[in-house]
Amino acid sequence: MPRNETISGLGLDEYKYGFVTEDKPVFKAVPGLSNDIVRQISHHKEEPEWMLEFRLKALEVYYSKPMPKWGGDLSRLEDTLDEIYFYLKPQDQMERSWDDVPQEIKDTFEKLGIPEAERKALAGVGAQYESEMVYHSLKEQWEEQGVIFESIEDGLARHPDLFRQYFSTIVPTHDNKFAALNSAVWSGGSFVYIPKGVKVEIPLQAYFRVNAERMGQFERTLIICEEGAEAHYIEGCTAPVYSTDSFHSGVIEIVVKKGARFRYTTIQNWSNNMYNLVTQRALVHEEAKMEWLDGNLGSKLTMKYPSCYLVGERAHGEILSIAYAGDGQHQDTGGKVIHAAPNTTSQITSKSISKGLGRSSYRGLCKVYDGAVGAKSNVECDALLLDERSRTDTYPYIEIDENTASIGHEATVSKVGDEQLFYLMSRGLDEAEAMAMIVRGFIEPVAKELPLEYAIELNRLIELEMEGSVG
Amino acid sequence: MTAGPAESTLAAADFDTLSGGLTEPEAIAVARAAAWARFTSLPWPTKKSEEWRYTDLTKIGFEALTPVVPAPATAEALSADVREVLGRSGERAGVVVLREGRVAHLELEPEVARSGVVLSSIRDAADRHPEVLRRALLEAQPGPAEEKLWALHLALLGGGYFLYVPRGVEMPAPIHAFHVVERAGTLSSAHSFVYGESGARAAVIDEFFSDDLDAETVSLHGATITGEGGAGIDYVALQRFGRGVKRFSTQHVVAGRDSRVVTFNVALGGDLSRADVTSRLDGPGSDSEMLALWFGDSDQHFDHHTLQHHAAPHAHSDLLFKGALTDAGSSVFRGLIRVDKGAQLTDAYQTNRNLLLSERSHASALPNLEIEADDVRCSHGATIGQVEDGQLFYLMSRGLTRRQAERLLVFGFFDEVLGRLPMEGVRARVREAIEEKIGL
């Protein structure tokens, strides 16, 4: 079988979740962006005055910043933004139990396997339908422990002081154009607080879904992990296929205090018309450990570089990243580690796969400030090209102001070797199976880090796509 | 006629003052006029452009510099310092001495000349080989961010030498060129033009030097190095300018089918030293080795940009750049491997290693890949670290001071690159210059 046919036989580019449910928004703003829209959002959410002011100021910052010229092609985004709905609210009430969730939304989740996941004691499921939390459950024991896992709106309403203390301190409004945009129109997302010493053993999960044509989603998540606490947050998202460009721009802020451990897992599988521009950042204090596990499979263009600011001695940051770029997709992803304290350590592992006309780029920063004595960082990037038309790039930035730092970066680019294929086929596999096995082996170092229960979702999004159409 | 600075500063200069009333070959006059027009129309790149992110061109007072008129060659005797270096650096096939770009001395072994090798000033070459010259300069046209400096370099074109090695001729020894900058406050430019026809073998060492100068002085340099099918060219640029000099070198290699071109940059001197080195793997089976070493102390700043451009299949490129910094020295390495569509079976490697010896030194590394073919083997690696305590301790326990031990380890660190230089004579010269700089 010719190679190209084999690859298309893998069905890597078939979008499995390309269904659309009829949407019935309760409130829908007019498309485009203006001060009035921002006021409407704030009014609708019954926010305190300071938040409205914060939003309006952020909008000014957004207007004042030029469109980034680096990374992916954003030239068509500006037109898109004029047509995007910056706010939708599907329901007025926050649902308390699964039975109350409307049937059409349930149908959508059903196809994603969320009910099973929930029933299998995946505990706190904050399911986000369109721009807001529509379903939210949390195990009682956590409530007793003082764990807060709520929608970001409830976080603001119920814990105003805690919220204000941390909100926008990790990703300031002026950080970048899209962080400013998110700050102006944010809606939905999670607010998580893990009290001192509390260990949350079952991952906190939130499912995201965008389901209205030309609608932008601007989720905002704020996570505070107190001293010695441990938790794992999982966010996954899929979206149906649309005819016009869609836009998602989230901001995730995380504080990991002394000796705490936090892991944040994202698997995004937006449909191939989505611009996905996300700012994810964690502030990591003394002896704390932060891990980002980032899987980017969908979208038209993703620009996302989870970052760890290591601000306390012996803080550790880790970023594991998988990117898959199929036809027409550009995954511009990677990670940033900023060493600002002595003996801080970090590790970035990136695996990318490009197929067809897909392009995957690793873009990363390793910065060691003067005084971050003994900082150690290691970056490894491997790229796999499945097609002669595919493209891969690697753009690491390494800036070192500290002479006792030890920094390494390595990257390799390869294709699936004929010898590897031949070997597997000589053992009785057909070419498609052999190819799928090699691809799975390639991503395995990152994939194995996912929690077992999350493999349900991961298997659907990666492994089934890899070999789903074999035979 | 001697080359004198033009009467005015760059700010006040127009094309006529830049030409100083000289008559020059038409090929050069036309190229210079076009470059000058381009130069005056372009803005200076700022730190906002990726190419100049770590080196601020706007801090250099270009406008106040006195541009040196690209004067015709003269035939001076060799100066004592040049004679001294030559006496210690082994065999050679020819010698060129350039003062602020002007060819002041040029000699080629008669036997080599008889084999058809041409060594001349760029001016003479423009009369006799205008097409070869024009093509090479066109080929070397850099990207938008480097265009301003390149246009300035071309506007001052006229200084520099031309080496042409005909088909199948193997030069027995290298050409040694000395680029001397003597006048503080000047802006001068020189070009090294090296062309090897099919199967030719050539080696060139460009040595740049000056005293410490008391005013900001800028030295521009361009090199175009072309190897036709099966040619073998070794090119070394050894930069040991004194303080006060800011140096910008743009080197462009085109490697034809089955040719092999080695470039080796050594940066030791100057306040600021920037080299943009491009290797274009133009023919199947071509091979490019790109090597560099730098040692920065005081507040020296070194900036190396490289491009390994694989435009043809079955080609190989290997880059190894190593730098060591002490005091408040700083360095940047920004390298790109670009593999075009269709450049299958590419083998491309890129390694940058940095040693930081002092608290105030800092280094940046940006090793980039852009791959558009699938059947390739590409990898890059970059490290930044310091000398190992264990090694330092061992040497100090044998009676060396910390400084001596450190410097010895730096030399060991450099040795991997030095060992890859093909010619013993050139290797010895480079080793000597490094020893002199780091004060072993």
What radius of gyration of chain A results from the CA coordinates? Answer: 22 Å
Molecular shape of chain A: globular
Give the % helix of chain A.
25-40%
User: How far apart are the termini of chain A?
Assistant: 12 Å
Q: Averaging pLDDT over every residue of chain B, what do you get? A: 92
| Biggest interface pair, counts | A-B, 34 and 35 residues
Number of helices of chain A: 13
Mean pLDDT of chain A: 79
**Global morphology of chain B:** globular
What is the percent of helical residues of chain B? Answer: 10-25%
Oligomer class: heterodimer
What class would the helix/strand composition of chain B place it in? Answer: alpha/beta
How would you sum up this structure, described in words?
The complex is a heterodimer of chains A (471) and B (440). By secondary structure, chain A is an alpha/beta fold. Chain A is 26% helix and 34% strand. Chain A has helices spanning 3-9, 35-44, 49-64, 77-83, 103-112, 114-119, 140-145, 152-158, 160-166, 177-185, 418-426, 431-447, 455-467; strands at 27-28, 88-89, 125-129, 132-136, 148-151, 190-194, 204-209, 216-217, 220-225, 230-238, 246-248, 251-256, 261-269, 274-284, 289-296, 301-304, 307-310, 316-325, 330-339, 345-354, 359-368, 376-385, 391-400, 406-415. In chain A, the strands form three sheets. In chain A, strands 5, 6, 8, 9, 11, 12, 14, 16, 17, 19, 21 and 23 form a twelve-stranded mixed β-sheet that branches. Chain A has a ten-stranded mixed β-sheet with strand order 4-3-7-10-13-15-18-20-22-24, covered by helices on one side. In chain A, strand 3 (125-129) and strand 4 (132-136) form a beta hairpin. In chain A, helix 11 (418-426) crosses helix 12. The longest helix of chain A is centred in the last third of the chain and has 17 residues, at 431-447. Chain A is globular. Residues 1-19, 91-96, 114-136, 208-216, 239-243 and 467-471 of chain A have low confidence and may be disordered. Chain B has 440 residues and is of the alpha/beta class. Chain B is built from ten helices and 20 strands. Chain B has helices spanning 15-19, 26-41, 80-88, 110-114, 122-128, 130-139, 144-155, 389-397, 402-418, 424-438; strands at residues 66-67, 94-99, 102-108, 118-121, 160-165, 175-181, 186-196, 201-210, 217-227, 232-240, 245-255, 260-267, 272-281, 287-296, 301-310, 316-325, 330-339, 346-356, 362-371, 376-385. In chain B, strands 1, 4, 5, 7, 9, 11, 13, 15, 17 and 19 form a ten-stranded mixed β-sheet that branches. A ten-stranded mixed β-sheet of chain B has the order 3-2-6-8-10-12-14-16-18-20. In chain B, strand 2 and strand 3 form a beta hairpin. In chain B, helix 2 crosses helix 7 and helix 8 (389-397) crosses helix 9 (402-418). Chain A binds chain B through residues 70, 370, 383, 385-415, and chain B through 50, 341, 344, 354, 356-386.
